[in-house]
């Protein structure tokens, strides 16, 4: 490719606020990030939104036509097969045919995952992909990736081990943790704690020399910053993710309700406006973009269905970071045992093979 | 009994801050609540603390001697059998021999549960007891009971159904919800969502006429106030509980850190002191006491190991509420199918049988 701009396919039709908010986020991304966007969707619905920005053509944005969308009420597999030209299918094909390097979608997450599996396939060595979510921690500017947050329930121990491998690569190269620490979400610190899958996963994670496993992480460790990667079954991960998102909103509500009470409260709250804005940024989940679908042979970001422009923008940035850091190439090498997490030799010395 | 004061056995030796903070909480309870406390522990360690309150004898407090304590590092069953006079064993015996109506312990929670099972036995119809935790919700003065938060992992569907029965009775009579709404913690609203146990539990809960089941609760519903009772496997419940506790602390830390920044920040924060105190009360888990061990034949409150006096006081209040509301008698009737959640006829017309 002549340009170093990352090429990202965005599903313009997926999500509660599609296509308007998706397009707003995408336009902002073309302006502020080094990205070219392929906006996949129905041109008749997309063009009026593009024209609001002064023109229906944009230097770094191209519309790729698709027909229909997988509805939230649809069975993913049935929908994907019935609507072959649905936006999520077309977006995945952009990556498959190497016209794009990543996909971002805020549509039906089950359908996004199924489309990725069908069109891109799994990475070698990964039996079941996981959705990774990035959480802020108590330590400023330090985040943790939790996987899986909803792709699989009833995980077996070996799946949790594979999540550990993927999380390690992602944390090291995309999040820039030189010395990532991996934990297993569990109900106690001791290796004997937890359900059957957790007890067995502890053994596998500990025995795997490629994984910098430091032990069990409890619920409180999600935010402690003691771990860079936390692996768990998709059931518990999903509950924690949705709880965490709600907690941020509840806290902001409590602040809005309690702070301005009384005369001193009103005055104090007025004085604190900029500081409150910073707090909102630290606890608001919209600031954190979307989940990364790890384990398929391509970069896919699955955003929240409720995503508005800032979330879409952040999801595109997440996709671009993954492209820039050659996540797929690195994962392939790592899964093939060709890369040691303690050295950087493999990938940087050879061109990406994707 | 001649008096209506509830008689509560408190394990003075269990917990990180035993016996000092336990005793402080117990003394406050005798002063502010209608309770008589049996303080179970080593008199040599207890008496100096009691004397700080002016006297080693107190009208509503009696010391019951015990020997030793189950350490956090001990295997519960081994410890309980080896140390027959350990404080938790002696405290349970107070209930078994009807000298007390409830037990409160902040010691090793596994040991507390095992001691309750060994000494008091299970309620008829309950295969495995659960620990219920009471969470505040977004709606002021409305709380939700989540069970199980750590007694059992790998729950089967019928255990979740039994949790639904117990939660219903607890919510209605102790928390005073006339029309309790029961939910199943899951990763989506549809009955087809979740792991095998959750899918089957949905069917059982829906089919059980004694349980006012309204459907699946997602992670965000823990705090929404849409549910009064949420049932889940102890693995996920424990993770959510510990996450929630930590989140409260993290939020308070963020407030402490961000609010006073800058000159306006300092002034504004000073003005907001009383309002911030109210916020702390709403998010601080110490305000919420302890977990209720439901399904054993006696009232047991399992408090957090880190409990200090306010938590101990709140745990005793929780125990007293359960005693006053004849939770065990009601549970027995309910499990025997003799009581309909929609009527109040059974218990109130007959004296407690325990």
UniProtKB/TrEMBL annotation, chains A, B:
Organism for this UniProt entry: Euhalothece natronophila Z-M001
Subcellular location: Cytoplasm
Organism classification: Bacteria, Bacillati, Cyanobacteriota, Cyanophyceae, Oscillatoriophycideae
Pfam families to which the protein is assigned, alphabetical: FA_synthesis
UniProt function note: Catalyzes the reversible formation of acyl-phosphate (acyl-PO(4)) from acyl-[acyl-carrier-protein] (acyl-ACP). This enzyme utilizes acyl-ACP as fatty acyl donor, but not acyl-CoA.
GO terms for MF: phosphate:acyl-[acyl carrier protein] acyltransferase activity
Gene behind this protein: plsX
Top-level class of the enzyme under EC nomenclature: transferase
Protein name: Phosphate acyltransferase
Pathway: Lipid metabolism; phospholipid metabolism
């Amino acid at each position: 490719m002549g340009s170093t701009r990352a090429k990202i396919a965005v599903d313009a039709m997926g999500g509660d606020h599609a296509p308007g908010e998706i397009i707003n986020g995408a336009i902002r991304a073309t302006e502020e990030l080094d990205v070219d966007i392929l906006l996949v969707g129905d041109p008749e619905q997309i063009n009026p939104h593009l024209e609001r920005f002064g023109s229906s053509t944009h230097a770094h944005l191209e519309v790729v036509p698709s027909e229909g969308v997988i509805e939230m009420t649809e069975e993913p597999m049935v929908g994907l097969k019935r609507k072959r030209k649905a936006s999520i299918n077309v977006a995945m094909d952009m990556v498959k045919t190497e016209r794009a390097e990543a996909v971002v979608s805020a549509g039906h997450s089950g359908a996004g995952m199924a489309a990725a599996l069908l069109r891109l396939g799994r990475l070698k060595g990964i039996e079941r992909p996981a959705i990774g979510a990035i959480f802020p921690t108590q330590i400023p500017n330090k985040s943790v990736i939790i996987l899986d947050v909803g792709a699989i329930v009833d995980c077996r121990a070996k799946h949790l081990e594979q999540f550990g491998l993927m999380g390690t690569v992602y944390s090291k190269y995309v999040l820039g943790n030189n010395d990532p620490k991996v934990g297993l979400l569990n109900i106690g610190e001791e290796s004997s704690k937890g359900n059957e899958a957790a007890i067995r996963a502890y053994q596998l994670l500990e025995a795997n020399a490629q994984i910098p496993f430091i032990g069990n992480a409890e619920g409180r460790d999600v935010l402690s910053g003691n771990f860079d990667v936390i692996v768990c079954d998709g059931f518990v991960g999903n509950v924690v993710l949705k709880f965490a998102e709600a907690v941020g909103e509840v806290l902001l509500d409590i602040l809005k309700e309690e702070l301005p009470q009384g005369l001193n409260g009103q005055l104090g709250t007025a004085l604190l406006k900029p500081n409150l804005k910073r707090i909102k940024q630290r606890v608001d989940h919209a600031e954190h973009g979307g989940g990364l679908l790890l384990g398929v042979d391509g970069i896919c970001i699955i955003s929240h269905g409720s995503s508005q422009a800032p979330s879409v923008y952040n999801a595109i940035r997440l996709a671009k970071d993954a492209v820039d850091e050659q996540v797929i190439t690195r994962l392939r090498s790592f899964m093939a045992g060709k890369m040691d997490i303690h050295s950087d030799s493999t990938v940087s010395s050879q061109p990406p093979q994707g």
